[in-house]
Design brief:
Largest sheet: 8 strands, antiparallel
Strand order of the largest sheet: 1-2-3-4-8-7-5-6
Helix content: 25-40%
Order of helices and strands: HEEEEEHHEHHEEH
Shape: globular
Number of strands: 8
Number of helices: 6
Length: 190
């Protein structure tokens, strides 16, 4: 499949369109998943450039509500995959190759991911929300998580460790679905 055909196929997965933004990125596709705007971008289509997704969850603002942003009600959560697993995790932390991360009281997530956040209560409220931990674990295990940033008042940025040229359409569809589900969790929790 040629590059344009693949872009059209990906756009079809999210009822979206291919955007010509060649001044900034080689691939830009915008669409909708689970009712939220989502964007897939690739700086370059081949190796070593990865694919990134961005989903916006804060869509509706109440004009009657005061626009006072309270940082204590929101959090920025960063997730990275662990390098060392099992016995290697002990060695990688001992020799300071890898940080321990912050506690989220979920052994499965702490074992698979390095999680950091700037605000404890909103971060734990999001992670402990029904279904959120399972979606995060699935994104890490099945969708080649490279980095994820969750801003509870804005949306989700997800970097996938696959380049656009070699990206599988099933993987792309699954990633769109999981990010849409996570967007729903984010909009319900906040």
């Amino acid at each position: 499949m040629d590059l344009y055909g693949k872009q059209q196929a990906v756009a079809g997965l999210i009822d979206g369109e291919v955007i010509d933004d060649t001044d900034r990125v080689a691939v830009c596709i915008k669409g909708i998943t689970h009712g939220f705007p989502i964007r897939l971008e690739a700086f370059m289509v081949g190796w070593p450039w990865s694919v990134t997704y961005a989903i916006e969850t804060n869509l509706i603002e109440d004009p009657n509500q005061e626009q006072n942003y309270n940082p204590n009600e929101h959090a920025r959560i960063n997730l990275l995959p662990r390098i060392g697993k099992g016995i290697w995790s002990i060695l990688s932390r001992t020799f300071l190759f890898e940080t321990k991360g912050q506690k989220v009281h979920d052994k499965r997530l702490e074992k698979e991911l390095i999680i950091t956040y700037d605000n404890h209560e909103p971060a734990l409220r999001f992670i402990k929300y029904p279904g959120a931990a399972e979606i995060l674990a699935t994104l890490a295990e099945e969708c080649h998580l490279k980095e994820m940033i969750i801003k509870t008042n804005e949306g989700i940025y997800f970097s996938q460790g696959v380049n656009f040229k070699e990206m599988d359409m099933d993987l792309c569809q699954a990633t769109f679905n999981y990010l849409g589900e996570l967007g729903q969790v984010l909009s319900e929790a906040f």
